[in-house]
Amino acid sequence: MNGDATIMLVDDHIIVREGYRSLLRRQPGFAVVAEASDGSEAYRRYKALQPDLVIMDLTMPGLGGIEAIRRIRQWDGRARILVFTMHQSAAYAVQAIRAGAKGYVTKSSAPDALVMAARDVLAGKVALSPDIDHELALSRIADTPVATDVLAPREFEILRMLLAEQTTEEIANILHISPKTVANTHYLIKSKLGVVSDIELVLVALRQGLLGGVGGV
After folding, report:
1. Could you tell me if residue 213 is inside a domain?
2. What is the CATH number of the domain that holds 106?
3. 69 CB neighbour count, 10 Å cutoff
4. Confidence (pTM)
């Protein structure tokens, strides 16, 4: 690779991967060596190849990005992961960083923002696109905290799946946990967010900007 930094792209949309693969390959010092279309494939390919940088979407069919980040970082605490997503919510950024991501760039950002963030994360820095930096600043001065700040990354991932209308059994199969664990976590999520019904849970998610693209956009 002539010393180039190796990169794995993780996104369920082929055309999106083609776009930023082309962008990154034009940059000196980068080599795209692997791609994955969901979190499970990303985890397997990371263990096989151990690329220098993972650029990861969050919302994908099956295992989502936050849980994939958590698993990769559990397996390799030195993994460098940059989130590249449509979600402009501070809650998603907080959860991704808690799971172990070192950067967060939204897909509405200029192309050079992704390139600069990739270089920063490879250099050991934390990288945030300007819009997310702004959202995080607003969330810090808001009268009430971001509701999902109280959830652990695994709980947040299960919330994302519930909002995508996946069943308890489907979530259990994807995460390799028991349906009872999913049900217990569902109850815990509602308790932590101060709601008693799924309708209230959806309303909280709507207020926090968590419903956009939950189905895989």
Report:
1. no
2. 3.40.50.2300
3. 30
4. 0.71
Return the pLDDT at 84: 95
pLDDT of residue 212: 58
Largest CA distance in the chain: 57
> Left (φ > 0), alpha (ψ -120 to 50) or beta: where does 165 sit?
left
How many domains does the chain divide into?
Answer: 2
User: Is it the case that residue 52 has pLDDT exceeding 90?
Assistant: yes
Helix, strand or coil, per DSSP, at residue 166: coil
Helices (H), 153-207: 153-163, 168-175, 179-192, 198-207
Structure tokens given for 71? 């698993």
Per-chain mean pLDDT for the chain: 87
Residue 189, domain member (yes or no): yes
Q: Same structural domain for residues 183 and 153?
A: yes
Q: Which of 140, 173, 198 is the last residue of a domain?
A: 140
